[in-house]
Write a structure and sequence with these properties.
mainly alpha, elongated, receptor, cell membrane, sensory transduction
Length: 238
């Protein structure tokens, strides 16, 4: 996704624009001409550097968020695997020890997801709002020029949003099925104290855990809502 931004640096070759002095961006170094060599090459190098810095920053921010969400997904998935492998016919002490470990791991996973949501709530809100505005403005440009190079930018932004929403949707699905996985074990044959631990975990597994961007969750439903809202704003402005 981020390597596709190299197309911005190739724009002067495929889509020369005299209004920008055939540079990728309408941005120039001060106190020097931008349309004659070697100053044109200096401006081009500055644009390439800005693009590289932006890509490195976005890879760090979005990559850490995506990996963190995936970590939460696999924590829930490992809990489900522990429940499937739980031997309800084991000795009481061993069964109790295993259930306590599962409950504590589930509590830790919930705390981790809540902390992750707290750290990224504002960031997700900014991403939602910015991409919605970007889609609206980009479609207005495309309406006047279907071959506009802004297509590359819109596709990269949409792919970023889709990736985050997909991971958030996986978290919702995994946590939503956790309660059913807990209930499916043979908890009826357990001693009363172990049954209470199972009931505690079933209660803690509801409702499903999700990442929220303050106003909307990180899910595929939110992705579709943003797409629909962007098209609605486009029709109003157009």
């Amino acid at each position: 996704m981020y390597t596709s931004t190299i197309m911005f640096e190739l724009l002067p070759i495929f889509f020369p624009d005299p209004k920008k002095n055939n540079l990728p961006l309408p941005l120039y170094l001060p106190y020097m001409p931008s349309d004659v060599p070697p100053y044109w090459h200096l401006n081009y190098a500055a644009h390439a550097l800005i693009n590289a810095l932006a890509v490195c920053f976005l890879i760090a921010v979005d990559g850490s968020m995506a990996v963190s969400i995936l970590s939460a997904v696999y924590q829930i998935r490992s809990l489900k695997q522990c429940l499937l492998e739980l031997d309800t016919s084991a000795e009481i002490q061993a069964l109790h020890r295993e259930l306590v470990f599962i409950v504590q791991t589930h509590v830790s996973a919930r705390k981790y997801i809540r902390q992750l949501e707290k750290l990224n709530a504002v960031n997700l809100l900014v991403i939602f709002c910015f991409i919605c505005l970007l889609l609206c403005m980009g479609m207005n440009v495309i309406a006047t020029d279907i071959w506009s190079p802004i297509w590359f930018f819109l596709v990269a932004a949409l792919f970023k949003l889709f990736l985050l929403c997909y991971f958030g949707n996986r978290l919702i699905i995994e946590s939503d099925t956790l309660a059913d996985c807990v209930y499916s074990i043979d908890w009826v044959s357990m001693p009363l104290s172990e049954q209470r631990l199972v009931l505690i975990m079933i209660a803690n597994a509801q409702p499903a855990l999700e990442m929220n961007g303050i106003f909307m969750p990180l899910s595929m439903a939110s992705f579709l809502s943003i797409m629909k809202a962007s098209y609605s704003y486009y029709t109003l402005l157009h």
